[in-house]
Design brief:
Blueprint lengths: L1 E9 L13 E6 L12 E5 L9 E6 L1 H8 L8 E6 L2 E4 L2 E4 L2
Parallel strand pairs: 3-5
Antiparallel strand pairs: 1-2, 1-4, 2-3, 4-5, 6-7
Length: 98
């Protein structure tokens, strides 16, 4: 799992049947306390949380768990956005996103 910022949308003219009606987004991992990027953007499926560009999100980056979140064990999915983050707390410091 990681916290990231949605930085863009992905469009596909053809998708696997299990991705029908699902949004594909680009998510850049961030440091939860500073908001600074800490890696390259990855494509993720919105797991029904209605995130979009600018959203700070919690991302599951493991196939079995990702397929469990979208409730389709046959889906060719590894990375899913499972929550929108309201705030993060580390060592008594709190960072609010909303």
């Amino acid at each position: 799992m990681f916290i990231g910022e949605v930085v863009g949308n992905v469009w596909a003219t053809r998708k696997h049947a299990s991705l029908k009606d699902r949004r594909l987004l680009l998510v850049k991992p961030i440091d939860p306390m500073t908001g600074e990027g800490i890696g390259s953007a990855v494509m993720a499926v919105d797991g029904g949380v209605q995130s979009g560009p600018g959203s700070i999100v919690l991302v599951v980056d493991e196939g079995g768990s990702a397929r469990g979140i979208i409730q389709d064990e046959a889906a060719p999915i590894r990375t899913v956005i499972c929550a929108i983050v309201d705030q993060a707390a580390v060592n008594g410091k709190v960072k609010k996103y909303t």
